[in-house]
Specification:
Oligomer: single chain
Distance between the termini: 78 Å
Structural class: mainly alpha
Shape: elongated
Keywords: Plasmid
Strand content: under 5%
Amino acid sequence: MSSVNRAPAISRRHPAENLPERPPRTEQEGTADGGRAAVGAPTPAADGGIEKLTEQHNVRIRPSVKDRAVRAVGKIRYETGDSTVSLQSITDAALDEYLTKHGC
């Protein structure tokens, strides 16, 4: 073998190298951005216990709306570092907000 150091003929960069650094997380972010940190949190039930996401509600939505929601989940998880945020939790939060807004 020769002692010549050669660069590889094909050099690829990892796609994650182009991502910006995650912003530093502070304690007050949950209240400053409209309560995003509480999106995945279980809500208290009427009997005082913790209510979990157990009920299934099959609905038809436009594919573009579902794609936006899936991207939003990824974005919120990335920005907050909260892995409990899911499509189910943001759907639950949106329905709860809508019903509260309309007095139901």
